[in-house]
Write a structure and sequence with these properties.
21 helices, homodimer, Rossmann fold, five-stranded parallel β-sheet, Amino acid/polyamine transporter I, alpha/beta
Chain lengths: ~650, ~650
């Protein structure tokens, strides 16, 4: 029944042998895997300015220094991950790398961090994109939650259609955003070079500090601002995770893409931060603290203030706004590429339900995509599509996985060193190891900073969620292991049951019952009994009379049921057969009414279902459903099955 | 798993042969079946005063006349229903009577009216009771919905325990209410006889009319007030419906109980109405229309104003309030006795799902009780526990069923007349018929009045709900009829299938698979194939190698699946077997993992379940589940099954 709309949304199924076709050339891989890190430059600068603003205008002089620190960190992390692309051509996410080098538990820590972060990427990016839209069109503001959910659905559908098509769909906004920001930087450079002054609308506004400063307090605020600026690094992981999706040579293409992304992101972030300083952008977390903001006016985002100052309104400014909104929404797409692949790896290793490891009709991991969308949707609803609150949960997971991944790479190179003798190769390996060691050290430091400065601002939620996920994944694996061990073939082999006792529960004599009896007789069991439960004595007597009258060649037994229950006496009956001959098997034949509409299920089969469930818990019992297909069940049938062939 | 709490709430199951024990003596039958009509005197007078008040104080002179009209109606209806008790000793609800005399469709109209009304009885009575409580303890007012739902749950549990116990539980409040009202009337009579004046607190308050009066408008308002006063008649039906629950002689005891109830209700209603006139109770639907009501004070109910005037505060007044609240809540119990019995009759006749016809552990119709509670709970939530809005939906159903029931009785006596020759008996039958004819005529008139005067005030909801229910019941019956006709044994009998083809889907070789193969071999099918779907070529090759290595004596076939789907290729395979030999039957053996915890269901059996569902739609296929019970399934097992006996 769900066939036609599914086809319409998702497209026709793709054959497995077309998997190779969905590999990505670099120019498509960039928008698919890099929209997240590229889009973060839209808000990273603003985060620094906002937090510094808590200490008043006096602290804004720190902006360039903090910006520089973020750039340095970005360089180190990109360099680090390029090593990973080469070392792990089959996908070197933090999970694979730490599993390989640090063991299962460390890899599960990384995995839970990544899973949480992918979900947050979707939620934060979509909500931020919607916020950009609603600040352009204030009439849409009350519908932020619905708009966000609609975008999540849109992204889900696009991704369910398969990787290649989404690469194409997302190229325009990503390249558009990069282009418009570079135009912004170029125009600003030109105007500054010709001696013009660029002034943000907020340059003249004052700011009431809401934080004491001086000494350690200033240091703490600066560190918190730096931690917030680190949102520029979110999503760098995605490329190394996606190496298998690149065209050959996979590793080299991935490393090149990563470097390109790094170059673009650094230039854009540095340029925007510089312009924020030059144009004197002043912002406050609480607009009431801004002196000079006209009543009723919302403060614009840092990037749009810069855009206004440079372009002075006009089409270029609106283009900047539009592309910003577009890339923010599409950044979520990075997670749609990363999450399902990671979930399938985890499912393959038995840490998540097996359904997540299976590729869907369009060769993507459909279940993972749907799961990601569902959880992100819940977060959006729970946090009422509020960017400020959601963003506090972000980056902890990023830096946990960064740290584990880099630490794992250090170990990886140590092992390589043991195998390599050639001095030139050894030198190159040592250099790679040094790069990853620097990365590991720096990301560890930043992780501690983020934890300390953001814990009370909402990060504690992630600090609780990650260990829960970690324990869940450990327990799922333990469950599968136990199940497999129990189910392992036993050395003695399986002995055939000595005899088969067939039991057919009967309520009244009709075609389904008679057919069930015929099927039961067809397997030639060692004995066959029809059994009825005496609830209403008059009815039971009528049944016996009809049974004799019709000359049915199967003995009919009755069971007493003083408590009017039908299921328990039948279960007891089956149990007593098994008890008297434990080497035999009991086969219970249950007629089942096949329903064509969901509501028919309320009118039929209630007792059959309950009886079946109870019997499955009995050792040495098999339960055979003999379906009865009335005309009404045809509604839910394949057309070719619609004319029942009939058994006799 | 639900066993222990269920026992604790509901009690141990009762044997069917104890059904006789739950019969009620008259002194218990009165509270069980009459708390509804008795409790209505607590608000019927108030309804008259409230509606008349819409026209200003000038119309209150009509109160005694309208009160008299209600009393006359009550006498007629009680007299009418006493005839029914004698004519239908097996339960003469409007449904049975109109089915017998007016045909199926009329009876279903009556049934839908009754079902709607039982639900409303629960909702209105519970909410009114809670309103009585919250006006005594204003702090509870914000929790009215939760309190109402808690009371519904309490009533449900008490009723699930069985009729007799609820009779006892409800005797005290019912008799207590009757007693305190009679004390009220006696004290008032004494004080008036000794020349004292009784004045309600509202006697001096003025009233702004919010309705034009004069001519037809006055007549319309008077009729609406009368219609509202008819709430005093709700629930009279219950006794005639419950005749089978009375001790022998059932009919006579029921008729006596009905007469007793009528006498009590009429005396109480007439007395309270007289006192409302004497003490000058002034009330307004909208408190803002009362001149003199102190700011911030809510107007008290009419009965409590009379109580204050007569008892002058003190313990007797609070006792009156407490018993009023108690009987209002317990009035809902009438519906708990009526609804499940009616639903079981309807289910027995195939108009409602069959589950409703089955008696539960404690010999009551548990499913009906739970259904009633659920729908009433929904209504309470939807109407925000607001008595004024809920009460507008009331009485339409009551008078529909009154009318049909009395009209049915008129026909019933006509048929009797045809059979009877003895002049004395004929005279008695003619007298009965006259009583019922009067009843039918009067209730028809009142029904029209209620419809016209209350339609726009909310009654339209019921006018929509009843036909929907009517159509639903017709369609359920038609569905069962079609199903039975299709399932009727065919004249030719069932031919045994010629051959059995057994198919065992295999994913990997483990104990559940091997056991399933052993069970399949044990039935000695004409041919047996293990089938695997080639999704991952490497895995399939490994499976074949192990199959050969283990020397499994069943051929293993593989099916290609270019789209990675497992279920569809297997269904196609089964279909092709059937197509090449349509007189044979295919038996598919599916290993099923028995789970002990609900969450394990997410980790196992997903494919097995889907495959099974799809196969049941195939004609000539039976599906055998071979359960595999791992240790973790023991959590949900009966202790005696916990040590698997093992098959070989």
């Amino acid at each position: 029944m769900l066939h036609t709309p599914k086809r319409w949304f998702i497209g026709r199924p793709l054959r497995s042998d077309r998997l190779g076709e969905t590999l990505l050339p670099k120019r498509l891989a960039l928008p698919v895997f890099c929209s997240d890190p590229l889009s973060s430059v839209a808000y990273a600068t603003e985060q620094i300015v906002l937090v510094l603003g808590l200490g008043g205008l006096g602290l804004l002089y720190l902006t360039p220094w903090l910006g520089t620190a973020v750039v340095v960190l970005l360089v180190v992390v990109v360099a680090s991950y390029r090593q990973t692309c080469y070392a792990y051509p089959n996908g070197g996410g933090a999970y694979a790398v730490s599993r390989d080098n640090l063991g299962v538990r460390a890899s599960l820590v990384a995995a839970s961090a990544l899973l949480v972060d992918y979900v947050l990427t979707v939620a934060v990016s979509v909500v931020a994109g919607v916020a950009a839209i609603t600040s352009a069109i204030p009439a849409l503001a009350p519908h932020a939650v619905v708009l966000s959910l609609a975008l999540v659905v849109l992204l889900t559908v696009v991704n369910l259609r398969g990787v290649k098509e989404s690469g194409r769909a997302f190229a325009v906004p990503t390249y558009g955003f990069v282009a418009i920001v570079f135009i912004l930087l170029a125009v600003a450079g030109l105007r500054l070079a010709t001696g013009q002054t660029l002034t943000a609308e907020s340059a003249s506004w004052g700011l009431v500090p809401d934080h004491r400063t001086g000494g350690l307090l200033t240091v703490f605020l600066a560190l918190r601002a730096f931690a917030s600026g680190c949102t520029a690094l979110t999503g760098v992981e995605a490329v190394s995770n996606g190496v298998p999706s690149f065209e050959e040579p996979k590793s080299r293409n991935a490393a090149t893409t990563l470097a390109t992304m790094g170059g673009l992101a650094i230039t854009m972030f540095a340029g925007i931060t510089a312009l924020a300083v030059v144009t004197h952008v002043h912002m406050a977390e609480d607009p009431a603290h801004l002196i000079g903001l006209p009543a009723g006016q919302e403060q614009r985002t840092a990037l749009s203030q810069i855009g206004l100052a440079v372009f002075g309104g006009g089409p270029a400014f609106y283009l900047l706004q539009a592309f910003t909104a577009a890339i923010l929404v599409l950044a979520a797409n990075t997670a749609y590429n990363g999450f399902p692949v990671l979930a399938s790896l985890l499912a393959h290793d038995g840490h998540l339900p097996r359904q997540l490891a299976r590729r869907g009709d369009r060769l993507v991991f459909s279940n993972g995509i749907v799961l990601l969308a569902a959880v992100a949707g819940l977060l959006i609803v729970a946090f009422d599509a509020d960017v400020t609150r959601l963003i506090q949960l972000y980056i902890i997971g990023v830096f946990v996985s960064f740290t584990l991944s880099q630490a794992g790479m250090v170990r990886h190179w140590s092992r390589e060193l043991r195998a390599v003798r050639d001095p030139r190769t050894r030198r190159s390996v040592r250099r790679s190891q040094a790069i990853n060691a620097t990365g590991a050290a720096m990301t560890t430091l930043v992780l501690l900073l983020v934890l300390v400065t953001k814990f009370t601002h909402g990060a504690w939620i992630v600090v609780i969620a990650m260990p829960l996920l970690f324990v869940l994944m450990l327990r799922i694996r333990r469950h599968y292991d136990t199940a497999d061990a129990e189910a392992a073939p036993r050395p003695g082999g399986v002995t055939l049951p000595s005899r088969i006792h067939a039991v057919v529960p009967v309520v009244k004599i009709n075609e389904p019952t008679l057919r069930t009896l015929a099927f039961a007789r067809a397997i030639h069991p060692d004995d066959l009994t029809a059994v009825t439960v005496r609830v209403d004595p008059a009815e039971t007597d009528r049944l016996f009379a009809e049974w004799v009258g019709r000359d049915i060649p199967v003995p009919l037994a009755e069971i007493d049921s003083p408590f009017r229950d039908i299921v328990q006496p039948l279960v007891d009956h089956v149990r007593s057969i098994r008890r008297s001959s434990p080497r035999d098997v009991v086969c219970v034949f249950i007629p089942e009414y096949v329903v064509g509409h969901w509501w028919e299920a309320l009118l039929h089969n209630q007792t059959a279902l309950w009886l079946k469930t109870r019997l499955l818990f009995q050792p040495g019992v098999m339960v055979t459903s003999v379906p009865w297909q009335p005309a009404s069940s045809h509604a839910a049938m394949d057309p070719e099955d619609r004319t029942p062939v009939g058994v006799g």
